[in-house]
Every structure is written in structure tokens, then in C-alpha cells.
């Protein structure tokens, strides 16, 4: 669950930052109902309103219905985002097995790129929402413009990586020439043309900051559909085009991202009056940039941890066989799709818990966590069952041959054992963020992905040379993380929720 808790954690971090701002303002300055409602809309409404109906909904609607209404748009949005990598890998696997390995190898860098643009979006998104809640239009506009400036810097970094660093990145993991060539083709196009994903993420975050999440769903869906249509055309060379393999997959991806970005820009200019963009007299403002980065850097760091883990794990697997890297890539893609409903539910829970924390309703806080936890565990059990019963069918979607089946079937069954604990960890992490304990989420993530998983995998690889034991490092790391999560959840309950209950009883 490392990477896609990546994209997942990004969105969760985005929501948690904004909802924490709401909680703090509510406790310290006793915001009016209208200003609180404006802040809440970024996480849970499809259009920005300035009445108390949204507020009442968060505090009064039956919990099951509330969770579904808030979470469903997020589930759809995250599933669409996950489609990009899954679709690329499915089509590429039918072109060449080495191309699939190359796409899996370049993935840590691609994931970091998404983490940087989305993390920066988290920062200026939170600042825009806070400024709008304060009725400070100039401050909101400044946050948006400084956010665009930071995103341009982020793009420049990955442009340089695409021009000068891709080959070195590939060679640091494998010496198989064909895999290196495919990876360089795919990674160079994705990085040099990453202006598409940077623009898409930037302007989607602006729409989200004003509560217009329906528009972001449309932009993401359009980008994914275009990618799905163009992938086979570009990869296999239909309609008179040459077969471009991995490079074709990258071209299809960036075209989808660029078109989605154009639509997001259009929506901001025509449908988002809450942010007024003008570059006249623009100059970098250190204080605004500092506030954006103070929120963005932790988000980027959490994704960077996942990228480091994936990079390290790929290097370990290459010491066995490139097929193991392909299998690991397939597991990641399937896991991303499997976890999205849980991540969406979790992201829906965060604003509910945070709102009711500010409203001093501990019973609703606990009920939200309980319902989300139950749903997450049930869904994870379904995913675990699928991985245990039909791993061969899952692998065949990626055109797995006999040699990949021999490695992949036991690998999927072993790594998916971690699903037993994953739902608990995800929901606990969301609760920590909702209550302003984001550092707890970071501790769990570091323990799972760096402190436990990589050392255990390396030890198994070095001292046993048993690939099946290397796969076992995933459930081992997840067990450690669930122990940490439960311990910190109990501590959080003792220090935050129980005193809140007592204060409510006293009143």
C-alpha cells in the first residue's frame, strides 16, 4: 500500500490540512457559521455555498448516509487517477514483457513527480480555502498565483531530470539493455512533457479549494478516457501510426494529461469566480511561499518515502530476475485499484471527524471512525479473497506467461496477506490527520516502508536467496504498522476524545 497510499495520502493530507484549519479557527476565534461552512465545502460539497445547511449536514445527517454522500465523489476521482498506471501497464504487457518491467522500474520517479505537484497543490489549496473563509479575496488570489509559480519550479526540476537523468536512474537499477531503453523512452517523455500533469493538478486543486469537486471529476475522467483510447493506438500502431511500445504509452498518458489540464484551466476561468487570476504585477512573495511549503513539504515527503521504498525494492528484486520486478509492478497496480474505495471512504471520514471535533460531538466522531473501519475491513477481506483465489486470472490480464505465473501466483498470495491489516492502518491514519496528529501518520508510513519493509526484504534476499521470503516482508511490515497504529489510536483517544467527552458531560 505504499505508493497508492501515496496518491491516497496526498488527498488525505489535503483534506486533513484544510479541516485542521477549520478546527483551529472554530476553537480559537469562534468563526461564524457562514465562514465555517465555506471551509467545510472544500472537502465535502460539490459546489461552494455560504449557508449553514452544509454545516448541519456534517453534524446531523445519519452517519452511514453522510459517509456515502461525502466519500463517493472521492472514490470515483481516485479510481480514475489509478487507471492511468493500470491501463499503461496492461497494454504495455501485451506489447513486450521487458516493456512492462521498464514501466515498473521508472514508476518510483513518476510517482515522485505526481507527489511533488500534488503536494504543492495541498499547500496552496489549504491557504486558498483559509483565505476565502476569512473573506480575504486578495490573499486567496495571491496564494493561487504563488502556487502556480511553485508548480512551474517543480516542472522545471523534472524537465531537467527528463533531459539529463533518466538513463542514470534506469542504470542504477538494472543492466539489461532492452529494459533500460524502454525505461528511458517512457520516463523521458513523461518528465519532459510533465507540464501536462503539473498544470492539471494545479488547476484541479484550485477547483477543489472552492468546493467545485464535480468539475475535477470531469477533468480527471476525460484525461483517463483519452489515455485508454490512445494507449492501444500508440503502443501497437493502429490507424497507420507506427508501433511505439513504451514510448507510445507515455505519449498517450501526457496527451490525456494535457487535455485534462486545458479543461481544468477553462473551468477555473469560466466557472470559478472565487479565484481571480491575473499575472499583472506578479512577483514571488516569500511569506506566502513559506506558508505554502510548510504544508506542502510533509505531503511531498510522505510520497518520497514510498518512492524510495519502491526504488529500493526494485533493486532487491533485480538481483533475482527482472520478472520479479514485473510481478511487483503488477501487484502495485492491482493494489492501487483495490485500495481506492477504502481511501475514498477514509478521505470522506476526515472532514466529518474534524468538523464534529470542532463542534464538540465526540460520539459522532467515534461513530464515523467505527463505520469507516468496518467498511474498510470488509472490503479488504474481499480483495484478499480475490488475490488468494484468482491470482492466475489477475496475472493473465497482464499477459503473464508461464515463467511469470510461477513467480507471480505465490507472490500475489503472500503480499496480499497485508490486506488483513491495511484497512485498520488507513483508517487510523485518517483519524490522526483529522485530529491534527499528522505526524503519527508519517511515523506509521516510515516504519512500514523504510524502517521495516526494506531492511527485512534485504535481509531475506541476502541471507536466504529465497524470493518467496522477500514477498513476506510486506505482511511483516504491515503487522508492525498496525501495532503502531492501534497504540497511537488508543493514545489519541485518551488525550483528545475522552477529555472532550468529559467536557461535554460537564457542560
Task: Describe this protein with a few key phrases.
507 residues; mainly alpha; globular
Helix fraction, binned, reads: over 70%
**Mean pLDDT over all positions:** 84
List unreliable stretches of 5+ residues: 1-56
State the secondary-structure class: mainly alpha
| Tally of structural domains | 1
State Rg: 22 Å
Quaternary organisation of the protein chains: single chain
Tally of separate helices: 20
Q: Could you state the order of secondary-structure elements as H and E?
A: HHHHHHHHHHHHHHHHHHHH
Q: Sum up the overall morphology in one term.
A: globular
Strand count, sense and closure of the main sheet?
none
Describe this structure in words.
It is a single chain. By secondary structure, this protein is mainly alpha-helical. The chain has one domain (4-506). The chain has 20 helices and no strands. The chain has helices spanning 4-29, 33-44, 53-60, 63-95, 97-133, 137-164, 166-171, 177-192, 195-209, 213-236, 245-271, 286-318, 322-358, 362-389, 391-397, 402-415, 419-434, 438-463, 467-471, 473-506. Helix 12 runs parallel beside helix 18. The chain is globular.
Provide a short characterization of the protein structure:
The chain crosses the membrane at residues 66-87, 107-128, 148-166, 186-203, 224-241, 247-267, 288-310, 371-391, 411-432, 439-458, 470-490. This protein is mainly α and 507 residues long.
Set down the secondary structure blueprint.
Layout: H1 4-29, H2 33-44, H3 53-60, H4 63-95, H5 97-133, H6 137-164, H7 166-171, H8 177-192, H9 195-209, H10 213-236, H11 245-271, H12 286-318, H13 322-358, H14 362-389, H15 391-397, H16 402-415, H17 419-434, H18 438-463, H19 467-471, H20 473-506
Helix pairs in contact: 1-2, 1-5, 1-12, 1-13, 1-17, 2-5, 4-5, 4-10, 4-11, 4-13, 5-6, 5-8, 5-9, 5-12, 5-13, 6-8, 6-9, 8-11, 9-10, 9-11, 10-11, 12-18, 13-14, 13-16, 13-17, 14-17, 14-20, 15-16, 17-18, 17-20, 18-20
Amino acid at each position: 500500500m505504499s505508493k497508492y497510499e501515496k496518491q491516497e495520502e496526498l488527498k488525505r493530507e489535503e483534506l486533513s490540512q484544510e479541516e485542521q484549519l477549520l478546527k483551529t479557527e472554530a476553537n480559537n476565534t469562534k468563526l461564524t457559521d457562514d465562514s465555517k461552512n465555506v471551509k467545510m465545502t472544500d472537502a465535502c460539497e460539490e459546489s461552494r455555498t455560504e449557508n449553514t445547511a452544509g454545516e448541519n449536514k456534517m453534524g446531523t445527517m445519519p452517519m452511514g448516509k453522510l459517509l456515502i454522500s461525502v466519500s463517493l465523489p472521492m472514490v470515483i476521482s481516485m479510481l480514475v487517477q489509478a487507471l492511468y498506471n493500470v491501463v499503461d501497464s496492461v497494454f504495455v504487457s501485451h506489447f513486450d514483457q521487458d516493456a512492462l518491467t521498464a514501466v515498473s522500474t521508472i514508476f518510483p520517479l513518476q510517482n515522485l513527480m505526481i507527489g511533488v505537484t500534488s503536494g504543492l497543490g495541498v499547500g496552496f489549496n489549504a491557504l486558498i480555502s483559509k483565505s476565502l473563509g476569512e473573506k480575504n479575496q486578495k490573499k486567496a488570489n495571491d496564494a493561487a498565483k504563488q502556487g502556480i509559480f511553485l508548480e512551474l519550479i517543480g516542472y522545471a526540476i523534472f524537465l531537467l531530470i527528463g533531459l539529463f537523468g533518466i538513463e542514470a536512474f534506469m542504470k542504477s537499477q538494472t543492466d539489461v539493455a532492452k529494459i533500460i531503453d524502454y525505461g528511458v523512452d517512457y520516463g523521458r517523455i513523461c518528465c519532459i512533457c510533465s507540464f501536462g500533469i503539473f498544470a492539471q493538478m494545479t488547476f484541479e486543486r484550485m477547483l477543489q479549494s472552492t468546493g467545485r469537486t464535480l468539475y475535477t471529476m470531469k477533468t480527471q475522467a476525460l484525461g483517463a478516457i483519452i489515455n485508454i483510447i490512445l494507449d492501444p493506438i500508440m503502443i501497437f500502431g493502429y490507424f497507420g501510426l507506427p508501433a511505439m511500445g513504451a514510448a507510445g504509452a507515455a505519449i498517450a498518458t501526457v496527451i490525456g494529461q494535457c487535455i485534462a489540464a486545458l479543461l481544468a484551466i477553462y473551468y477555473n476561468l469560466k466557472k470559478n469566480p472565487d479565484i481571480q487570476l491575473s499575472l499583472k504585477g506578479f512577483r514571488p512573495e516569500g511569506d506566502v511561499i513559506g506558508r505554502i511549503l510548510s504544508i506542502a513539504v510533509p505531503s511531498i515527503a510522505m510520497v518520497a518515502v514510498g518512492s524510495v521504498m519502491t526504488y529500493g525494492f526494485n533493486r532487491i528484486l533485480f538481483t533475482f530476475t527482472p520478472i520479479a520486478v514485473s510481478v511487483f509492478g503488477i501487484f502495485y497496480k492491482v493494489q492501487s485499484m483495490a485500495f481506492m474505495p477504502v481511501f475514498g471512504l477514509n478521505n470522506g471520514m476526515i472532514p466529518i471527524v474534524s468538523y464534529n471535533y470542532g463542534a464538540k460531538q465526540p460520539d459522532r466522531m467515534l461513530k464515523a471512525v467505527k463505520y469507516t473501519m468496518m467498511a474498510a475491513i470488509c472490503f479488504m477481506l474481499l480483495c484478499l479473497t480475490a488475490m488468494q483465489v484468482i491470482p492466475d486470472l489477475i496475472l493473465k490480464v497482464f499477459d503473464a506467461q508461464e515463467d511469470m505465473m510461477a513467480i507471480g501466483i505465490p507472490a500475489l498470495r503472500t503480499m496480499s496477506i497485508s490486506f488483513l491489516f491495511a484497512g485498520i492502518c488507513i483508517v487510523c491514519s485518517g483519524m490522526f490527520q483529522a485530529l491534527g496528529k499528522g505526524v503519527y501518520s508519517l511515523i506509521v508510513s516510515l516504519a512500514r516502508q523504510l524502517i521495516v519493509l526494506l531492511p527485512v526484504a534485504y535481509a531475506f534476499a541476502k541471507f536466504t536467496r529465497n524470493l518467496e521470503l522477500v514477498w513476506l516482508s510486506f505482511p511483516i511490515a504491515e503487522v508492525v504498522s498496525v501495532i503502531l497504529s492501534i497504540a497511537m489510536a488508543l493514545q489519541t483517544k485518551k488525550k483528545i476524545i475522552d477529555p472532550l467527552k468529559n467536557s461535554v458531560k460537564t457542560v
